[in-house]
Each structure stands twice: as C-alpha cells, then as structure tokens.
Amino acid sequence: MAYVITEPCIGTKDHACVDVCPVECFYEGPDQLFINPDECIDCDACRPECPVDAIFPDTDVPSEWEKYIQKGVDAFKKGDLKVAITREKWEKEKGVAGTVANTYYQKFKK
Ligand code: SF4
Ligand code: SF4
User: Fold this and answer.
1) What CATH topology corresponds to 3-85?
2) Rounded CA gap, 38 and 95, in Å?
C-alpha cells in the first residue's frame, strides 16, 4: 500500500504535506505533487495536513479519482522527478517572477 495524491492538489499544491513526511517521499510534478509509492511508509501524517483533502491510501481513493493511482506510478517511470521543496521555500518562490512556483500559479491556479 502507499498513499496517493488526487485531483484537488492541482491548482492548490501548497506543499503543506511535504513538511510532515518522515521519509521525504513527495516529488514535484508539473501540475501536482506525487508520492513515490516505493518510498511511502503509510504513516498517515500527510493526509490531515492537506487543505483540500487530496491525499488517500491507494486502497481508499474515491472512484472518480482512481486514475490518479496509475498517474502516481507513471510519474516515476522516467526517474526525473525532483524531491518537493518545503512549504516555506515554495511560499517564498511564489512571489518571485520566473520561479517554478510563480509560473505554476499563473498556469494552474483555481
Ligand atoms: S503516508 Fe507518511 S510516508 Fe507516506 S507520503 Fe504521507 S507522510 Fe509520507
Ligand atoms: S497538502 Fe494537498 S494540496 Fe497541498 S501539495 Fe500536498 S497534496 Fe497538494
């Protein structure tokens, strides 16, 4: 089993989950964060931190978001994802033009 990030993360992506993960298994995707299924230890620390309830155990993903289980596996196939930065760093980047965070919210913000 592993935890999975689903659709509500897209456009929110506030990195609150990153700070509480004991094994640093959150990674930066273009539209959402991803949890590495081979590294997650199912500790449940991240789930209550998410403001939009995007995180679920892979055995309990709502049916309309089940495709995010495979998306979260496929995301790691190339091996080029970077470990997600902390929420503090992400927040700082948001206001700086040209950074990954600033560009992200221009493209995806709900
Ligand atoms: S369940 Fe625990 S180990 Fe898995 S991603 Fe969340 S905080 Fe990290
Ligand atoms: S806390 Fe939720 S919305 Fe924020 S980055 Fe993590 S999964 Fe995405």
Assistant:
1) Alpha-Beta Plaits (3.30.70)
2) 33
